[in-house]
């Protein structure tokens, strides 16, 4: 376990520019929002808001931070397992339990090395803060590990989404740049999984009776970096395609989404992959991009601050350094807006007041800043 010093030094409250401090706000004529710089982090990966308005932020190298937007204070959270952050490895997604107000449970994902091979793991701990501010996750337990663990440092995925009824946890496992595991019925790699909240496979998953790993919900995916339910309970997912072919998919139980047998992109070495085509037996994406946007986080927006965007998906663009909006109409989706943010955007989150919150990636020239977007006239 890491950070033993965090208990001794709980209140290294790192000063940063919070909303109540020295935030910098800019507005430009070409964007319908104002951008406020709230804080700066070290290659942040994901964030989530707690019921009291504070946020949990994960950083690539393995730090989880409790951040208060009102005064800009940061408290490192102890109890996080060792993270293998080589390549695309990181302390990844973080999400409070659907019943956090009662159980204080926090779920998170991370990449790890075990016996010379690597994979993504799902863990849970109990949020605990002492009277002096010291903060930790108690009783951290790994609930689920991708299978198999393999060599290499890419395509872990590791996104978490709870079903609207709070009974199930959906978890993404990337195909680890190994291609074929996405079609392997025994491997969880290249799959969306449906788990019980204790990490065991949910009963009646759609492919278990056919001999698939019992956790699998859908398969034929590549690097799944966004997962979100809409207001009607549909599950949307975005993933990085190969050379071209980034995707937004509507995830349905038991379906094969094609990779690496079908994709609207090609292999990086130039080899062709057949495009999605009617009747090929694979579920085609609802939206795809070529040239790519390199999608990061995914958000289904339900807030009141931007009423014109209710029911839209928002995607962080990494190589495209953009914020992307996808318009939904039932089970249909279409490209809507793409704004140049001047930095790699890793995460998109909705704040308690309906503002959009972004995390810069902190790599390839990005600063790792936390940004808050409010209406231009706000």
Automatic annotation (TrEMBL):
Signal peptide: none annotated. InterPro entries: 6-blade_b-propeller_TolB-like, Glc/Sorbosone_DH, Quinoprot_gluc/sorb_DH_b-prop. It comes from the Bacteria. Pfam families: GSDH (PF07995). Coiled coil: none annotated. Residues 41-366 form the Glucose/Sorbosone dehydrogenase domain. This is PQQ-dependent sugar dehydrogenase. It comes from Sphingobium cupriresistens.
């Amino acid at each position: 376990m890491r950070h033993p010093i965090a208990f001794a030094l709980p209140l290294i409250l790192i000063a940063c520019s919070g909303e109540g401090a020295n935030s910098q706000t800019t507005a430009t004529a070409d964007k319908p929002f104002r951008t406020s710089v709230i804080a700066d982090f070290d290659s942040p990966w994901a964030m989530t808001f707690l019921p009291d308005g504070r946020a949990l932020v994960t950083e690539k190298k393995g730090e989880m931070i409790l951040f208060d937007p009102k005064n800009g204070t940061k408290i490192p959270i102890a109890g996080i397992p060792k993270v293998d952050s080589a390549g695309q490895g990181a302390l990844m997604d973080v999400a409070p339990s659907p019943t956090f107000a009662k159980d204080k449970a926090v779920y998170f994902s991370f990449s790890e090395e075990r016996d010379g091979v690597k994979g993504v793991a799902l863990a849970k701990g109990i949020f605990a803060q002492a009277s002096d501010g010291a903060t930790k996750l108690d009783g951290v337990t790994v609930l689920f590990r991708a299978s198999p663990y393999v060599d290499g440092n890419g395509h872990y995925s590791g996104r978490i989404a709870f079903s609207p009824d709070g009974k199930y946890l959906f978890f993404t496992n990337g195909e680890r740049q190994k291609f074929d595991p996405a079609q392997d019925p025994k491997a969880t790699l290249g799959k969306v999984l449906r788990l019980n909240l204790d990490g065991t496979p949910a009963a009646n998953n759609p492919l278990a009776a056919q001999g698939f790993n019992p956790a699998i919900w859908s398969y034929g995916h590549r690097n799944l970096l966004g997962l979100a339910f809409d207001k009607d309970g549909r599950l949307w997912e975005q993933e990085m395609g190969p050379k071209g072919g980034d995707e937004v998919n509507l995830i349905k139980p038991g379906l094969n989404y094609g990779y690496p047998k079908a994709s609207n992109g090609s292999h990086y070495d130039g080899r062709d992959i057949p495009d999605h085509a009617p009747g090929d037996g694979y579920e085609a994406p609802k939206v795809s991009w070529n040239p790519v946007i390199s999608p990061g986080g995914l958000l289904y927006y339900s807030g009141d601050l931007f009423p014109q965007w209710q029911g839209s998906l928002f995607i962080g663009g990494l190589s495209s350094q953009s914020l992307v909006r996808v318009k939904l109409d039932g089970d249909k989706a279409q490209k809507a807006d793409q704004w140049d943010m001047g930095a790699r955007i890793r995460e998109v989150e909705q704040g308690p007041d309906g503002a959009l919150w972004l995390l810069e990636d902190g790599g390839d020239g990005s600063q790792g800043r936390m940004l808050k977007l409010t209406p231009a006239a706000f």
